[in-house]
TrEMBL record:
Keywords assigned by UniProt, alphabetized: Antibiotic resistance, Cell membrane, Membrane, Transmembrane, Transmembrane helix, Transport
Origin: domain of life: Bacteria
Main location: membrane
Protein's membrane topology: Multi-pass membrane protein
Database matches in InterPro entries: MFS, MFS_dom, MFS_trans_sf, Sugar_transporter_CS
Protein name: DHA2 family efflux MFS transporter permease subunit
Keyword tRNA-binding: no
Compartment(s) where it occurs, according to its Swiss-Prot or TrEMBL record: Cell membrane
UniProt keyword annotation of Transferase present: no
Name of one Pfam family that matches: MFS_1
Transmembrane segments: 20-42, 54-74, 86-105, 111-136, 148-169, 175-197, 209-229, 241-260, 281-301, 371-394, 415-437, 449-470
Length: 498
């Protein structure tokens, strides 16, 4: 009797594709890890190198500022100079800066090292995402790959808090940087072994890089992110903050004019006429405004109100990280079954529900009662929304613009996060100051965090209402650029044309 043959899953990755994806995901993990790993160790870092209050803030801000301001430049450099080359250079910079941060004995060296870390991250993130897009052409395979991407991104954010607590408590704050450096060197070695370099191609000439546009937008984003981060400490009416935000507005307007007139524009208008790139990036900015704030306020509540140690605070992020990994795995399956729009809308509503649940925290609460349940709900919604919005933000992008698309979606998330955190931190501080007149310090802090979580839930609910309107397929023109015929790491060789 002849049995019917089982058809192979043509979208299943090959062993080599899986290995390369693991390496690229590890590169993304290091970027996300560095964003959050210092949060629980800031008091020890401050004492170790003699930081002032403002200097302590800039241990975080220096990385965020360089990362957010240089992502577009990093993405375009990856398109023109080669994704693998830019990824390798970014990893090398990141590792060297991490070692320098761990060895720092003065505030100036530490803050400078964090800025160079951000520069390296701005090269790593878009180059790695562009390589993933080349490795997995549009379809079910790419959906699964972006699910992995979302899982490691969320795990990096939550895992950084845990790893930071463990290393700080066991060996000292220096090892949060040394461990990142060692991990980055291992990733760099794997990139060299598994991802072959590409030969020179005509589209990679240095003269084709939009220097004027790059400088203008980098300065604009620097002013914007600096103004927003500084506003958390000095207030929105401070002259320097207002000056920085005004300069950002002028520079962004100048950038828009420049890009319309340049044939080799850093941000070509065609980027926003394909697929649902514009919708994906706008929604990602709104998601980012809540995402960054979540990982800022949640550890503060655990430590300042519940009295958790750095280690316990980090361990408390594990359920959120596990929910994030589960949601990222489910995201491509839900998208195929429900459609992109329904998946994004439902995920945003789930995360909003989790944040609304978090807004019920109390000053005399506990981790199990106040944090565990809502953090799992938030993790599920956040991860599914992130994976689907990343897919939308790169949908239909021409092959030669893949690096730029990766830089753009990371930029919108970072800038959205800076705006959201500045606004929510100001709100929380105002509520805390008002409540402290009548209540204890712990009660006042809790009231501020509750306000931040409540407004975050409202932002996501509004974003969920916008999602069906913005993500509907339209008849917008999609440029047809020959896709890379390769499905492995060699795909990079055929994607850099202009």
């Amino acid at each position: 009797m002849n049995l019917p043959r089982t058809q192979p899953d043509r979208t299943a990755p090959t062993p080599r594709q899986s290995a390369v994806l693991a390496v690229l995901a590890a590169a993304q993990f290091t970027v996300m890890l560095a964003t959050s790993i210092v949060n629980v160790a800031l008091p020890q870092i401050r004492a170790g190198v003699g930081l002032s209050d403002s200097g302590t803030t800039w241990v975080v801000n220096a990385y965020t500022l360089a990362f957010g301001a240089l992502l577009l430049a990093g993405g375009r450099a990856a398109d023109l100079l080669g994704r693998r080359r830019v990824l390798a250079v970014g990893l090398a910079l990141f590792a060297a800066a991490s070692m320098a941060a761990g060895a720092a004995t003065s505030p100036e060296v530490l803050i400078a090292a964090r800025a160079v870390q951000g520069l390296g991250a701005a090269a790593i993130a878009p180059a790695a995402l562009a390589l993933v897009m080349g490795l997995f052409p549009s379809g079910a395979g790419r959906g699964r790959a972006l699910g992995v991407w979302g899982a490691v991104s969320g795990a990096g954010g939550a895992g950084g808090v845990l790893l930071g607590g463990v290393l700080t408590q066991a060996w000292g704050w220096e090892w949060i940087f040394y461990s990142v450096a060692l991990g980055t060197v291992a990733v760099l070695a794997a990139v060299a072994a598994l991802i072959p370099g590409a030969p020179h191609t005509p589209g990679r000439a240095a003269g084709r890089f939009d220097v004027l546009g790059t400088v203008t937008v980098t300065l604009a984003l620097t002013c914007l992110v600096w103004g927003l981060t500084d506003a958390r400490g000095t207030g929105w009416t401070d002259g320097r903050v207002l000056g920085a935000l005004a300069a950002a507005a002028v520079l962004l307007a100048a950038f828009a004019v420049i890009e319309l007139r340049r044939p080799n524009a850093l941000m070509p208008p065609r980027m926003f006429t394909v697929g649902r790139v514009a919708a994906g990036n706008l929604l990602m900015a709104l998601l980012g405004s809540v995402w960054i704030a979540l990982f800022f306020f949640l550890p503060l509540y655990q430590q300042q109100v519940l009295g958790s140690s750095p280690l316990a605070t980090g361990a408390g992020q594990l359920p959120l990280a596990a929910a994030n990994m589960l949601g990222s795995t489910l995201a491509p399956h839900l998208s195929r079954r429900l459609g992109a729009t329904a998946t994004v809308t439902a995920a945003l509503l789930v995360e909003a529900a989790g944040l609304l649940w978090l807004s019920r925290i109390s000053a005399d609460g506990s981790y199990v009662v106040d944090i565990l349940g809502p953090s799992i709900v938030v993790g599920l919604g956040l991860s599914i929304a992130f994976v689907q919005l990343t897919a939308l933000a790169v949908e239909g992008v021409p092959a030669q613009d893949a690096g730029l698309a990766g830089g753009l979606v990371n930029t919108t998330r970072q800038v959205g996060g800076a705006i959201g955190l500045a606004a929510l931190a100001t709100l929380a501080g105002s509520v805390t100051a008002h409540t402290a007149v009548h209540e204890s310090h712990v009660e006042a802090l809790t009231a501020g965090y509750r306000a931040a979580f409540t407004v975050s839930a409202a932002i996501l609910a509004a974003t969920a209402l916008l999602a069906p309107l913005l993500t509907r397929r339209t008849s917008a023109r999609t440029e047809t650029v020959p896709a890379s015929p390769a499905s492995g790491p060699h795909a990079e060789q055929t994607t850099r044309t202009s």
